[in-house]
């Protein structure tokens, strides 16, 4: 099986020291001089990239790791010739076949970005197109800021800036999903809540033949979750910690803007997990190197709108390979100066008739952020109480332990 061992020990004060090596499971697909690294999101495995792997390489059959290096680089087809893309997808630490550290401090987007860089080193890829989804988009963003010389282009799907921005919008549907997610103990329960988390309601209610897509996807999800297993509590808590502690700093933004590669921010309009507002704001901060692609879909827009997402990724690869100018690439309006943004946020606006109106959108946004923080705090307290209650229950010992 293709595994690599990574050691993310560091002498830096802000990094956690990890004494044991972490194993990362990965797969490669296709052949070619154009390299693409796919980084999946929270609770996902490398298989979640299936539609993109097939769309980029033309196959979903993994390469045999034993002869991955058998082909000479000079013989590999190039993207300019209409093919030649090699893709690598892997399981993040805490999920799938990769190691599951037990400490939450061993999960940050910086540490997980180092996992991805170690994988690039193992593959012998000097540079690659880095595509990430959700938490994987946060990891990809951090990788781009940490090691811009390793990145040919950057795509972030259904991503936010981390921290409180990870909190979903507050409504009855989101609260219901959160409660069901916390209670899910079986593949069937998890599959049911995952469908409502990943896809738009409209998409799930469409008929495919004589059955609704929800029914077909439910069977597929139950089978997939049963095969890979439910994510462990340590893995889930760790990956949530990575999302919650993620920050896109001013230094990160400046680095991404000046690194010399293009960026694509792709998002589903009906995402109930990562709000489009924050994705668009991230794209605008990266002007002029970023392009915003919003599609009619949910959180897993890569599956709901496979053709559009694959085309957006291919457009990014082509634009990068042909060295397109950032101003020709971006579809975002030119950024206002920082003082103008502050003025628009705090100063009252004038109507055409001359009357004054207070900046209600600004106040509503601040109120919304307060409720997001409060909602996140409630979930955190709920999680601690659940763990405390579990620890008080007597342990039952069976004949065998697995």
From TrEMBL:
It holds the Pfam family Abhydrolase_1. Residues 36-301 form the AB hydrolase-1 domain. The chain crosses the membrane at residues 367-385. Keywords: Membrane, Transmembrane, Transmembrane helix. Signal peptide: none annotated. It comes from the Eukaryota. GO terms for molecular function: hydrolase activity. InterPro entries: AB_hydrolase (IPR050471), AB_hydrolase_1 (IPR000073), AB_hydrolase_fold (IPR029058), Epox_hydrolase-like (IPR000639). This is AB hydrolase-1 domain-containing protein. It comes from Cucumis sativus (Cucumber).
């Amino acid at each position: 099986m293709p595994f690599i061992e990574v050691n993310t020990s560091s002498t830096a004060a802000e990094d956690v020291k990890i004494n044991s090596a972490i194993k990362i499971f990965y797969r490669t697909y296709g052949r070619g001089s154009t390299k693409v690294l796919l980084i999946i999101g929270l609770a996902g495995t490398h298989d979640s990239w299936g539609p993109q792997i097939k769309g980029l390489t033309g196959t979903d059959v993994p390469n045999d790791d034993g002869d991955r290096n058998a082909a000479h680089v000079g013989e590999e087809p190039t993207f300019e010739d209409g093919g030649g893309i090699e893709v690598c997808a892997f399981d993040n630490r805490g999920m799938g076949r990769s190691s599951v550290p037990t400490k939450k401090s061993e999960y940050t987007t910086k540490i997980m970005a180092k996992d991805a860089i170690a994988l690039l080193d193992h593959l012998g890829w000097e540079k690659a197109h880095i595509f990430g989804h959700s938490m994987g988009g946060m990891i990809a963003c951090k990788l781009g800021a940490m090691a811009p010389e390793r990145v040919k282009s950057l795509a972030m799907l259904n991503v936010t800036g981390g921290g409180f921005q990870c909190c979903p919008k507050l409504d009855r549907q989101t609260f219901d999903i959160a409660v069901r997610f916390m209670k899910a103990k079986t593949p069937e329960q998890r599959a049911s809540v995952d469908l409502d988390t990943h896809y738009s309601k409209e998409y799930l209610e469409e008929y495919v033949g004589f059955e609704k897509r929800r029914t077909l996807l439910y069977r597929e999800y139950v089978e997939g979750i049963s095969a890979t297993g439910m994510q462990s509590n340590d893995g889930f808590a760790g990956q949530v910690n990575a999302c919650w502690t993620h920050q896109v700093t001013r230094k990160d933004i400046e680095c991404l803007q000046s690194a010399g590669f293009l960026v694509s921010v792709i998002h589903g309009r009906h995402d109930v997990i990562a709000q489009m507002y924050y994705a668009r704001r991230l794209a605008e901060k990266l002007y002029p190197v970023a392009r915003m692609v919003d599609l009619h879909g949910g959180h897993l827009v890569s599956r709901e709108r496979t053709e559009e997402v694959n085309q957006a990724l291919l457009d990014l690869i082509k634009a990068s390979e042909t060295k397109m100018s950032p101003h020709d690439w971006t579809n975002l309006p030119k950024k206002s100066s920082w003082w103008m943004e502050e003025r628009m946020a705090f100063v009252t606006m004038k109507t055409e008739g001359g009357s004054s109106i207070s900046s209600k959108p600004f106040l509503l946004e601040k109120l919304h952020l307060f409720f997001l923080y409060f909602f996140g705090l409630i979930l955190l307290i709920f999680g601690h109480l659940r763990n405390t209650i579990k620890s008080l229950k007597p342990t039952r010992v069976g004949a065998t332990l697995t």
